[in-house]
């Protein structure tokens, strides 16, 4: 008499309990506590007092929140699109090139190994209009100086460029991996059919890379929406509020102005945005699967 | 009956005084303990890191010191205090900024009982050696919440050699500043003329003299936010226009670190920056010889000179499990002996006996600029203020709003519009 494997496994489900408890403890508790704080009034030095949806109602009416929301989405859109476009280009280049092997690849992908704090410090050193080398270089080639992070009109784009500089190689690595795993016979067939390079890229490579690109987009989305360190190190959300993203706003409300409940409400909202974005990309991944 | 009463009283007084006499202060009473200190990056903290070994040698108490830049320091401090962490024993606090919030939150231990305990406090501690105004800044009612470690405020630094070369007179009234800047720029268009704090939260510290000296105030006579008052607008407009027309590019992201770097490197002719940075400025070659320093000139008609004058303090967490050992550190670090040693680090002593002492006077006599710096500190100690926002307990937020108004003017908004907007936001904090 044989017991089915399903029944055998069912008998051992309890063995997953430690992992479940650990997961709930490490992930569930902090999130649950943050939600609790967001539903409370938390005076400095005092215990949270339940206040229902008061913080969320305040958030809806707060122009600073909506400005931060707009900036977060703008930064996300600029950074993600640049990283996907440049990352795809660089990834295909790395995948096809015989020259870009070994050490060359390591050098090309090294920026994303830098801690964000280092990138922030580099931005201060390079982009400060008074001290930085960037304007000096521009002057050498006869171009006017830029204000980079000091001008409300350019600050967000400058952050998008900085993030793109750092993380495009990461996208490129993912794309390269995806490209190298594509079936070679498809490309051979397309070549026999006499397709041009552009047709090959547009009608074959890109659709086949769809799932890979969605994976890269999910990973980058989570990071870009939480982009914090470089902004805090360089502008602290300024000039004015021109780079006060949701993360910066929450940090300032919580740690500088001791408004812990409201800061938690902002962070929970941001987490919902991140979660929603990941969900949308998950649906998209199913749509582009082949 | 009367004799018996007198004898009884005498016996009681002997009985009460006996244990007091037995309680003598002993520096090694808490030997073997380790206290955790969290400090803001400041000349005092840097010096303390070097001097901590002396404290350990004297008391047998070990120290673990963490020093963070101000923003990180505040974030970590807030987290530890809100979490009622027992790990933190001693920390620095700018009582003029966060005193009201911290006291309300219960984040300061009361030092008064420890100070009153003869067994716990060194005999020559002499709290009255700190001036009344300095003591008041770290006292809430009868509760002593912190001990002062320095005194500071923004001062006017100018390059005497450049002024001389350009035949421009040093400003005698604050209203002279725009014309002075204009003349210097005309003299050498390639030269940086002015620098000051442009990062929003940092602005009010150096802005305040511009407002007060021209007869303005952050509050109306009835205690409402008053940035829109005519004289206050003058101050806001002058600060912003100097930054906009004569300041370095990117000034809106600058705080004291960038301003001092520009001054130290000889790239600007004048600034209004912290007295606290004096020692750092002097480390740059040539600045000890070519720089002048004084209190920001008063208003021409008002004759008012009222800059910021504050002091950092060191205090103890109420959650500390090592309060006696922590108190030993506090009194040692603020003692006459240690403050005298800190003079060489450019830390302006808050103790009158040190400020007027032989060592300090010998040190300032070594260079004319040191004398000018010390004289300026004495002056701002008399005329300055630690209140530089409209009335509220939410001081950091209020200063942020004031700084934002200045940033908006620099970016092209009219002073009246920016001030009105700021007043509306400030009113919500009251």
List the helices and strands and how they pair.
The complex is a heterodimer of chains A (290) and B (430).
Chain A: H1 5-10, H2 17-38, E1 40-41, E2 49-50, H3 54-61, H4 63-96, H5 102-109, H6 116-127, H7 133-140, H8 155-180, H9 184-192, H10 197-225, H11 229-234, H12 246-256, H13 260-288
Antiparallel strand pairs in A: 1-2
Helix pairs in contact in A: 2-13, 3-13, 4-8, 4-10, 4-12, 8-10, 10-13, 12-13
Chain B: H1 2-22, E1 34-40, H2 43-59, E2 62-68, H3 70-82, E3 90-93, H4 95-105, H5 112-116, H6 132-136, E4 139-140, E5 143-144, E6 147-148, E7 154-159, H7 160-165, H8 177-187, E8 192-195, H9 203-213, H10 230-246, H11 256-264, E9 268-274, H12 278-282, H13 287-290, E10 291-294, E11 313-316, H14 323-333, H15 336-342, H16 352-355, H17 358-365, H18 368-383, H19 395-410, H20 415-427
Parallel strand pairs in B: 1-2, 1-3, 8-9
Antiparallel strand pairs in B: 3-11, 4-5, 6-11, 7-9, 7-10
Helix pairs in contact in B: 8-10, 9-10, 10-19, 17-18, 19-20
């Amino acid at each position: 008499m044989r017991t089915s494997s399903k029944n055998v496994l069912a008998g051992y489900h309890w063995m997953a309990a430690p992992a479940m408890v650990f997961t709930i403890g490490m992930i569930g508790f902090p999130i649950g506590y943050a939600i609790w704080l967001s539903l409370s009034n938390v005076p400095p030095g005092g215990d949270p007092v339940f206040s229902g949806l008061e913080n969320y109602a305040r958030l809806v009416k707060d122009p600073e929140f909506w400005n931060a929301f707009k900036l977060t989405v703008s930064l996300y859109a600029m950074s993600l699109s640049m990283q996907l476009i440049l990352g795809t280009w660089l990834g295909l280049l790395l995948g096809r090139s015989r020259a870009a092997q070994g050490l060359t690849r390591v050098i090309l992908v090294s920026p994303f190994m830098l801690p964000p704090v280092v990138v922030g410090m580099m931005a201060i050193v390079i982009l400060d209009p008074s001290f930085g080398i960037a304007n000096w270089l521009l002057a050498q080639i006869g171009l006017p100086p830029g204000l980079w992070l000091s001008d409300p009109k350019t600050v967000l784009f400058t952050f998008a460029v900085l993030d793109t500089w750092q993380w495009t190689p990461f996208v490129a690595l993912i794309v390269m991996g995806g490209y190298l795993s594509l079936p070679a016979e498809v490309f051979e067939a397309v070549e026999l059919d006499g397709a041009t390079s552009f047709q090959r890229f547009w009608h074959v490579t890109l659709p086949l890379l769809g799932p890979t690109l969605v994976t890269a987009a999910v990973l980058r989305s989570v990071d870009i929406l939480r982009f914090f360190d470089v902004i805090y190190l360089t502008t602290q959300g300024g000039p004015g509020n021109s780079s006060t993203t949701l993360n910066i706003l929450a940090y300032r409300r919580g740690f500088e102005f001791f408004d812990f409940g409201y800061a938690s409400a902002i962070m929970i909202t941001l987490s919902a945005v991140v979660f929603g974005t990941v969900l949308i990309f998950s649906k998209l991944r199913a749509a582009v699967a082949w | 009956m009367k004799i018996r009463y007198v004898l009884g009283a005498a016996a009681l007084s002997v009985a009460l005084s006996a244990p007091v006499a037995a309680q003598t202060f002993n520096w090694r009473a808490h030997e073997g303990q380790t206290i955790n200190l969290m400090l803001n990056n400041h000349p005092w903290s840097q010096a303390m890191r070097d001097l901590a070994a002396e404290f350990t040698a004297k008391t047998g108490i070990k120290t673990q010191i963490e020093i963070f830049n101000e923003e990180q320091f505040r974030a970590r401090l807030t987290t530890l205090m809100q979490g009622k962490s027992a790990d933190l024993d001693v920390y620095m606090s700018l009582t003029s900024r966060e005193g009201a919030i911290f006291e309300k939150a219960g984040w300061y231990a009361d030092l008064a009982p420890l100070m009153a305990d003869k067994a716990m406090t060194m005999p020559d501690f002499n709290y009255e050696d700190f001036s009344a105004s300095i003591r008041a800044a770290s006292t809430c009612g009868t509760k002593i919440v912190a001990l002062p470690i320095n005194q500071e405020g923004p001062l006017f630094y100018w390059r005497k050699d450049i002024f001389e070369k350009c035949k421009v007179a040093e400003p005698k009234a604050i209203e002279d500043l725009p014309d002075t800047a204009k003349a210097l720029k005309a003299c050498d268009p390639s030269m940086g003329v002015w620098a000051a704090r442009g990062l929003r939260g940092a602005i009010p510290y150096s802005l305040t003299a511009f407002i007060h000296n021209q007869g303005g105030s952050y509050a109306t006579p009835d205690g409402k936010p008053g940035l829109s008052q005519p004289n206050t607008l003058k101050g806001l407009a002058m600060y912003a226009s100097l930054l906009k027309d004569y300041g370095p590019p990117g000034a809106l992201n600058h705080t004291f670190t960038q301003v001092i770097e520009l001054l130290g490197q000889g790239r600007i002719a004048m600034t209004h920056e912290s007295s606290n940075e004096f020692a750092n400025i002097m480390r740059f070659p040539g600045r000890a010889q070519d720089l002048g320093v004084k209190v920001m000139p008063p208003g021409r008609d008002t004759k008012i000179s009222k800059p910021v004058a504050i002091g950092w303090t060191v205090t103890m967490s109420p959650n500390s499990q090592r309060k006696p050992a922590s108190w030993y550190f506090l009194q040692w670090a603020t003692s006459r002996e240690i403050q005298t040693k800190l003079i060489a680090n450019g830390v302006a002593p808050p103790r009158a006996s040190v400020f007027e002492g032989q060592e300090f006077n010998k040190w300032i006599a070594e260079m004319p600029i040191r004398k000018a710096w010390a004289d300026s500190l004495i002056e701002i100690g008399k005329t300055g203020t630690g209140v530089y926002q409209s009335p509220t307990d939410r001081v950091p937020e209020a200063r942020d709003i004031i700084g934002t108004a200045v940033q908006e003017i620099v970016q092209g908004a009219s002073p009246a519009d920016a001030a009105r907007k700021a007043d509306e936001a400030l009113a919500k904090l009251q």
